[in-house]
Amino acid sequence: MSESDSAKPTQQSQGSQGAQGARGASSSPKPVDLQALVKTVQFAWFVGHVLALVGSFFYLLFSLRIFKSPSFPKFWYREAYVAIIFTFSIILNQTYRSKPLTVQALLRDDNCHYIFLAFLWLFSRPSFFTLPPFLVFSLFHVLTYLRSYLLPALGHGSSSPLSAQIGHFVTGYNDRFMMLAASIECLQFVRLLFRVFTFRKGTLVQFIIYVGFMKLRYDNSMFTRTIVKQYEVRIDSLLANPAVPPVVRNGWISFKNSLAQVFGGHRAAN
Question: What's the predicted TM-score (pTM) here?
């Protein structure tokens, strides 16, 4: 598979910060020959994102029992995560094949965080709740690639109505969807914590790994830190009501202090 400088995915991180890079890449589409385009590494990366969206869509349909099959839901779930891992593998290969691979670099790399998480969910019991953050990234990368490369190759320049609509959507909704993805990741933390407290089989290992993931996201993602702060302010406001028993407020403060020890930040006073 050949590779062209104008169609390499190395400039675009797939994580929460990466979608901002995707948004910027869509600002100056260049005409590309279609036959040459499909031979690039980035086209394979694009196909991986499309397959991730397709697999997630069919998994949702089977999960909602719109279609009934005992084996297909798991198949589409696995297909989605294999596609997700494939796209991250391309990014990581492009990123580190020409520079030293260090632990420090991997800990700062969104793509490393997310491929590790994708492997965790791939070998876990299927749950649609794990997919939305990845779907957000795939959606924006697919749209960006369409506008930047595929549409120009099909004769639709940046001035075409479809290209303009895609550009408007990506520019206007990128940050909102990144916040949504970060919010779902935080809710996933709460979901796993609840499953640990209710002694669900296999959840403790998932939770420990996910705590490490969230620690990295908190350290590296502005969106994650913003969402965590928003949730903290909302819960503080709710528990400030005099009708709330002191034991509940003290429990929340203890919980916040425990999180502060793990993720960093100030300790709340009793």
Answer: 0.83
